[in-house]
Known about the structure:
homotetramer; 7-stranded mixed sheet; 29% helix
Amino acid sequence: MTLKPGLSTQMVSVAVLGARGYLGRELIRLLLQHPQVESVGVGSQSSAGEPLGKHLPAFRHVPGLTLVPFDHASIRDADAVFMALGHGEAKSLVPTLDEAGTRCIIDLSRDFRTEALAANGWTYGLADLDPVAKGTRRIANPGCYPTASLLATAPALRGRLLADGPIIVDGKSGVSGAGATVRADLHFAETNESVRAYKVLGHDHGPEIRGAAAHLEGRNGNARGIRFTPHLVPQNRGLLATVYAPIQDGVTPEMTKKAYQDAYQDSAFVAVVDEPDTSHVRHSNRAEIAVDVDVENGLMVARGAIDNLVKGGSGQAVQNFNDSFGYPATTGLTAVGGGP
Amino acid sequence: MTLKPGLSTQMVSVAVLGARGYLGRELIRLLLQHPQVESVGVGSQSSAGEPLGKHLPAFRHVPGLTLVPFDHASIRDADAVFMALGHGEAKSLVPTLDEAGTRCIIDLSRDFRTEALAANGWTYGLADLDPVAKGTRRIANPGCYPTASLLATAPALRGRLLADGPIIVDGKSGVSGAGATVRADLHFAETNESVRAYKVLGHDHGPEIRGAAAHLEGRNGNARGIRFTPHLVPQNRGLLATVYAPIQDGVTPEMTKKAYQDAYQDSAFVAVVDEPDTSHVRHSNRAEIAVDVDVENGLMVARGAIDNLVKGGSGQAVQNFNDSFGYPATTGLTAVGGGP
Amino acid sequence: MTLKPGLSTQMVSVAVLGARGYLGRELIRLLLQHPQVESVGVGSQSSAGEPLGKHLPAFRHVPGLTLVPFDHASIRDADAVFMALGHGEAKSLVPTLDEAGTRCIIDLSRDFRTEALAANGWTYGLADLDPVAKGTRRIANPGCYPTASLLATAPALRGRLLADGPIIVDGKSGVSGAGATVRADLHFAETNESVRAYKVLGHDHGPEIRGAAAHLEGRNGNARGIRFTPHLVPQNRGLLATVYAPIQDGVTPEMTKKAYQDAYQDSAFVAVVDEPDTSHVRHSNRAEIAVDVDVENGLMVARGAIDNLVKGGSGQAVQNFNDSFGYPATTGLTAVGGGP
Amino acid sequence: MTLKPGLSTQMVSVAVLGARGYLGRELIRLLLQHPQVESVGVGSQSSAGEPLGKHLPAFRHVPGLTLVPFDHASIRDADAVFMALGHGEAKSLVPTLDEAGTRCIIDLSRDFRTEALAANGWTYGLADLDPVAKGTRRIANPGCYPTASLLATAPALRGRLLADGPIIVDGKSGVSGAGATVRADLHFAETNESVRAYKVLGHDHGPEIRGAAAHLEGRNGNARGIRFTPHLVPQNRGLLATVYAPIQDGVTPEMTKKAYQDAYQDSAFVAVVDEPDTSHVRHSNRAEIAVDVDVENGLMVARGAIDNLVKGGSGQAVQNFNDSFGYPATTGLTAVGGGP
């Protein structure tokens, strides 16, 4: 747990569970720079007692980052707890945090997204479209593919620009999206110079996009189909979602572009551009969105580019934290990203 | 011009125009290993008189590879001429080759593809679907994206498995597909760790896929729409096309998979697999195809993985050359590719 | 020029000349986050009048970043001017800045390093070894290779651990170190999957290392020879210098390691580790140093890993700025870097 | 075991043990194209009975490649057996092959290199410097780093151009050199954008270079010290060795360059060039060597670039096989490599 000088009464203590994963370490990076955070507890059940820097050399010089078990005071007493854990782990931990009276829990796994989309005790934190209300206590952070896909589709959904029919989402993600777990197919020499789809018929982000899109379009109970195909591309970070959807008769390219411009003109983090590129948003909480209309085929083609670890995970989680605690959305998220 | 020992009467002389580009150099690599090729002339208008190895160090040790102007005897007298030139250059050269009586011209640019798809003096050389007849004299070699896309879609088109509506092709290509020309956006530090779409509304491979697909489906004069979106991914070689198309009512996943298996069971170069990966076919003339049916959304999802420079260009050109000269299709194309 | 809320009298205005290059844009990123900087002027002679975001999309959302000519008030009146220009350009600009009374000039080119090493009006800003004094007005920022090499060698030089003979520096740099200028050999497909040395006999960082090392060892006028060989490796950022030097008889591995530990134990940015890795320090102002002794061959083997754009350029420049203005060295440089 | 048409009495059967590793699969690729090889047995103790293509999709279409246990007839009866196994495995297998009367064994591990350098029953197969005699029965294939390093140093060693003192070899290798075994530090996202040294004080290629260099220089019993430092760079293939050695007084750059030119002027695979680059030799059995003299520091700087899997392993093994069986050295090794 690292303490910052200049404690003030508005400052809060936070904890990150699952500190060693790619989302966990990115959360810690962001929270250490957050001006309203006075301490960051770092939880890892498997490595409790060890310095985080033993596992992640980039953190070696930061004082106070000793990994603690999940029942440690720095977690139990934290104002906000971020959970970046494997499937099912968050669910089993929440009762303990409830008992501890944790003011705000933000879960980055898929454990509570279904509940959140059903408005069942949790709030789905798609921060640039529906910022959570101040005081929200249980937030399910969206997946990386849903974030890019929904930002790229929302103005069309909300504006009722689409004709009937399924939406096709073709996603391309950098390898950090697959997590830090060791796998034969993620060996550098097997992944470099390789592009491939995966889980074509069964990735759980498909239903997540479907549920969230239904909300955005006001089709609750009658969700539009989502065809979602994720692909792995040989880069560390960066996710591009290319979205195809049938457009209403009479909706022109100009109307569509205007709907997108209007939707995001006051957005803190989302920009409508001509040519989104994952390299433009790397290491930032920003998203680049483009929309085109293929008039000949009656299709809208939208694109959304994000950093899968920031806007697609930890950055959006901090944005949700800001919204819940009443800080400006950009607090701690002002770093300008981009290449090289 | 390099001469091989053991000339036989069946052997032929060939020439490559545009020897310094990525397709040109790959053609030379293949033709130097081809057992029926006795000499390879290498043409470059801008660098005539210089050894190819001055520009491409990998060829320094190969004797006889001096770049010649396009009117040189080693080109004029070649049995087969491969043209790997910029847009419009092939068109201006053909009359000269016609006059020289060149037995077979294979053009790798887009200059003659429209004519070829209209059966107007040229033959469209989609070698794994419609091998050119022995003696074919003018062959337009397909583009890289069309090759992968059409191999991935042909069994459905030919088998009349698709319902009405446009076909969506989401292509992902390695950077060699953009050619060797120097461009600011292809600087290593701008392209590495970057994924982006390009020419979303105007890539000429869209109409090419449209025309060829119409032939395959027997829809001449009534072509089905093609939505084609190319993307650049940070690898040297390798192209994956992901194809989405509405499937007929009553067509099951099993029927679809069987149609694909049947279509390619005797194919020399195309395999139907579960998980295509560009790394499996790198440096080979092979294609990996997969097909799935998203029953819920009534969509076929097909994938085609190729090496964009080989199957998507020079390898298919050699295959067309083999077919035209009556050699077995695999002659000179038996190298096993794949990573690392 | 972007203005920050909460101006205080201690805050300063800065300007970056050469805003579009890789060092320039990294400087702007850092300065926009710097708590003591109230405004950042961005100068580009060739693109004056245009928004920086037109050229660098990552900056599109930042208000106030319009490129200005070098004689613009936001540069002329800046408290500190950072020059990240091509060879010779800084030299021609300094008289104008002198006339404008610029309080502090920090030059990131090689224009003034020779003067600085000769203590001739400029100070060589190797910030982790010799922090410039408060009030220093003219600072020549070290090159990327010299920074890594000298950090890796300094404890041995200062501790007089080395026997006579040249020091060999074998450097490996990511491609951003070559700058953003378009070059055929930096095309992605020519640089990816390529490792090569360059300028083996003539890189200007060799004499720079030589001069600075002589100071560190107290050998002024009798500099030890430096054999410096730079290599390009296929990554965006990250520089590793591997240093070989003859060690004094009787100097043990333990003594050597202790000298390194002692030298950097209080360092804000330099850590002595077992296995330096450029991925540990990416996007940070930190350096990882290791030292080993090859007893059998009487050689010290030292390594230094840095981010070539941050510690090797813009980060060190900000550190020099901090030192000159009397801010704590880590001000604005606390971001935790590292992969992925 | 795959059979080729057109068996002739001069053709031979071969087997590869350790078919699934990176060297094993590259050997199979080369041997399938070798005009004197009639069948290739593929051995894998752990996966016996399975098709090789199950593990390596690139080989799926090749008939006859079923993995067999090491006591299978296709191995026992092979004329030549290539062993590409883990440390110690080759040693335990040789007695069985001896008993089976295997005509030629080529081991790619380090198991017999020490014996070979001591001329103890095995021959060290540094094929471009000391081709094995026809009929050689037991060949220890050199390591990848020693191959590049020794090719880069041999003309200086043989020509007695070097002064006393250790030779420093700074090696940079692509990730395939680390083998196909799954390791956390070789996860794509940990290795991409990372450069690091490893085994600075204990890599077994150091003693191997030392022993072989002593032979080349005629210093048997009095080997010159070798300081060898291997580095991992983020590419699949390609190894560059940069060699630093003290040069004799009076040896000029011209003399040195001439010695190198003379040494390799008739070489089938080694070229002396100005700027070696791993991308020039990728997927080929060639080496690029450069030599420079740093007159000021009295040092020779030599460079050797190879494909670590081909010239650094399987290609050199095939070259040794050719020499042992009396085929021209280039048989089956004529493919032109290079990028992209």
